[in-house]
Amino acid sequence: MEQLKEKVAAEQKGLKPLLSMEYHELEAWLKEEGEPAFRAKQIFEWVYQKRVERFEDMTNLSKALREKLASHFSLRVLSEIVMQESTDGTMKFLYELPDGYSIETVLMNHEYGNSVCVTTQVGCRLGCTFCASTLGGLKRNLTAGEIVAQVLEVQRRLDEKGERVDSVVIMGIGEPFDNYDELMPFLRLINHDQALNIGARHITVSTSGVVPRIYEFADEKTQINFAVSLHAPTTEIRSRLMPVNRAWPLEKLMDSIRYYQEKTNRRITFEYGLFGGVNDQVEHAHQLADLIHGLKCHVNLIPVNDVPERDYVRTSRDDIFAFEKTLKDRGVNVTIRREQGHDIDAACGQLRAKERSEETE
């Protein structure tokens, strides 16, 4: 692997990924190096607007500064292994990281624009029983720069069509709040007006229920959208589907969600995957309506994609609509997620499990 060799050489030189640098951090570094702080704006423009891949192409910087940047930082951290494109236009990318591990990123086209779903970890330790991302456990956290790089790589694809990334969802492989210290710089970077300038209300973070981080995220008081992968109306069912519920039971999760809403007054999205015979009956819909009563929220019903490594049965069409109707009759704001990528390895972690089985065993 040529890129892996380059990474080893880069690490020996002590290079830091430039994409992990926040704007103020780059300004501070420039000052330490005797360079004016305004160079940060020029560098960010080259990286995030012009999307260059080599420091030598930053032609309005002095040769000395370009050489200094090259001696301290690496610029591109992902290489594409596989790209699958669905008939509906959904594109799923499998990228290789410098250390040889792989991650998934998805580009989805909606009527409101292009949305990118990014990964925050190589694998996942939470063990949700319906998810291919957990196969093989957690290998490591991604750096902020490695998460940023996913958005940039997709944007390069969109550049070919004269389009841009309109929104970002943090719902790929891994639990974002399990990598909180790298997640937050990533969010600030893609939102920064000198970087990708993606509006906070066009960014959505989803968690499986890492309760301490929900309190911390609430105290950040950002305008970023917040989603919770709920998937069950009772703690018993949730523990069966999501082992994270054993660490932070449903009651404690709901307490943290109420705290978040009190702090931010922002609407919460509940992601609710429908699993045949497990959580998809009318009685479950009533239990869900009781659970979320009084919250300003939206429920996103997700007919689950089949994952060969898991045994759950897809909910019937009639049961899906009966569940939706029950929630609507109870006054719940609810939609059924439009399926995308049904003809490719669309389920989270599925492409990685197929192409890099050695990582998921």
Notes on the protein architecture:
The active site is at residues 104, 348. GO terms for molecular function: 4 iron, 4 sulfur cluster binding; metal ion binding; rRNA (adenine(2503)-C2-)-methyltransferase activity; rRNA binding; tRNA (adenine(37)-C2)-methyltransferase activity; tRNA binding. The chain is of the alpha/beta class. The chain has 2 domains: 2-74, DNA polymerase, domain 1, CATH 1.10.150.530; 79-359, Aldolase class I (TIM Barrel, Alpha-Beta Barrel). It is built from 13 helices and 14 strands. A 10-stranded mixed β-sheet has the order 3-4-5-6-9-10-11-12-13-14. The protein has a two-stranded parallel ribbon with strand order 1-2. Strands 7-8 form a two-stranded antiparallel sheet. The protein is elongated. It starts with a helix and ends in a 6-residue tail after the last helix.
Order of strands, main sheet, comes to: 3-4-5-6-9-10-11-12-13-14
CATH architecture descriptor text of the largest domain: Alpha-Beta Barrel
How many domain units? 2
What is the N-to-C succession of helices and strands?
Answer: HEHHHEEEEEEEHEHEHEHHHEHEHEH
Domain Radical SAM core: 110-343
Active site: 104 (proton acceptor), 348 (s-methylcysteine intermediate)
Cofactor: [4Fe-4S] cluster
Subcellular location: Cytoplasm
